[in-house]
Design goal:
The chain is α/β, with parallel strands linked by helices and 344 residues long. Helices cover 27% and strands 13% of the residues. Strands 4-3-5-1-6-7-2-8 form an eight-stranded mixed beta sheet, with helices on both faces.
């Protein structure tokens, strides 16, 4: 076992820089002309030194932005369960990117309210999604979301999910393609690859196996841990397919969860319910660096929008996790990290 996260460290490539050769030219210098003889009474003409124009300081080079963002939400995934499972593919994201295993979700720590905060960057008190079932009579998520902002910028937005109730997040006009897959997480990934092949700015993929086993056999049960291992393989299939299609070039991948769980349930303020993993990988992200600032589920939307070079709404409670890119928040026009948000 190796690496900062206690998992297998994958070999890295060291870049070799070739020295630049400078060639000197021999310049012929003409002999100086003799100075004229000056009479003793001849007045000296003062020499005028021309005023040099100050060279303006160049503006900082704009930060390169990603072309697309992939958000992978694994329903019910506890960080300690993730670290106990066999996760070679997710380990590639961790070792090749930045991660924290102490990120926090919102209260209630339930699927629909938490995902609303994940994609809208706002506290529950602002987005108002307090229910956790598909209720057709209720309005869909209002206000700006990562989907609406990307859509307004001319990007294609895609959602492929394992729970139909997440259609509540897809307000008409904000998501180009919404697909609910009533099948396995492997089926969800295949559908996601099919839909992604047409190109996208934001791809949201929702996997459900850990939550299924958490409710069936208990969080941290052997079945739950094996379910995480199955989803690791599904994540690998997704990444391989996107890479083969050139869709990971200049892309940012965020892998996280909506909530954890304890016993056979979740939704409370207990640490086991509130703590989630937050992993980011890809274009511009620091390699193998732990995130040592507080991270909220709401930061997912803010980081995605910021990574695409788009504006973050002023009423969002989430902030871009710029530390994962080797940057300091106090040197940028972004909010600094806070351990307490939404009153929790």
């Amino acid at each position: 076992m190796a690496g900062r996260y206690g998992m297998h460290k994958f070999p890295r490539i060291t870049l070799l820089f070739l020295p630049v050769l400078f060639v000197s030219c021999n310049l012929a210098v003409a002999p100086a002309a003799p100075s004229p003889t000056r009479s003793p009474t001849e007045a000296l003409t003062p020499t005028v030194t021309p005023t040099l124009t100050e060279t303006p300081t160049p503006s900082p080079t704009p930060r390169p932005t990603a072309d697309r963002v992939v958000i992978i939400s694994i329903d019910g995934l506890r960080p300690d369960g993730l670290l106990q499972a066999n996760i070679p593919r997710i380990s590639e994201l961790i070792n090749g990117g930045s991660a924290t295993f102490t990120a926090r979700t919102i209260l209630p720590s339930a699927t629909l309210p938490a995902h609303a905060s994940m994609v809208s960057g706002r506290c529950v008190s602002k987005h108002g999604i307090l229910w956790n079932d598909l209720i057709p009579s209720e309005e869909p998520l209002q206000g700006a979301t990562v989907f609406s902002i990307a859509k307004d910028a001319g990007m294609r937005t895609v959602m492929v999910v394992g729970k139909e109730k997440l259609i509540t997040l897809a307000r008409p006009g904000t998501v180009d393609t919404f697909r609910y897959v009533n099948g396995s997480d492997e089926d969800i990934v295949q559908k996601a690859l099919q839909e992604a092949s047409g190109g996208f700015g934001v791809l949201f993929v929702h996997l459900i196996l850990p939550d299924f086993y958490g409710h069936l056999t208990g969080w941290m049960s052997p079945e739950y841990i094996r379910g995480i291992g199955r989803d690791d393989a599904a994540v690998g299939t997704l990444l391989d397919g996107l890479r083969a299609g050139g869709l990971l070039d200049r892309a940012i991948v965020i892998l996280t969860a909506d909530h954890g769980g304890h016993g056979l349930t979740h939704g409370t303020y207990q640490k086991e319910d509130m703590t989630i993993p937050w992993i980011i990988y890809g274009f511009g992200v620091s390699e193998g660096v732990p995130i040592d600032v507080p991270v909220s589920i709401m930061d997912t939307a803010a980081t995605a929008v910021w990574g695409l070079g788009l504006g973050i709404p002023a009423d969002w409670d989430g902030r871009p996790v710029v530390e994962a890119f080797g940057l300091q928040a106090d040197l940028l026009p972004v909010a600094t990290a806070s351990a307490t948000r939404c009153g929790i």
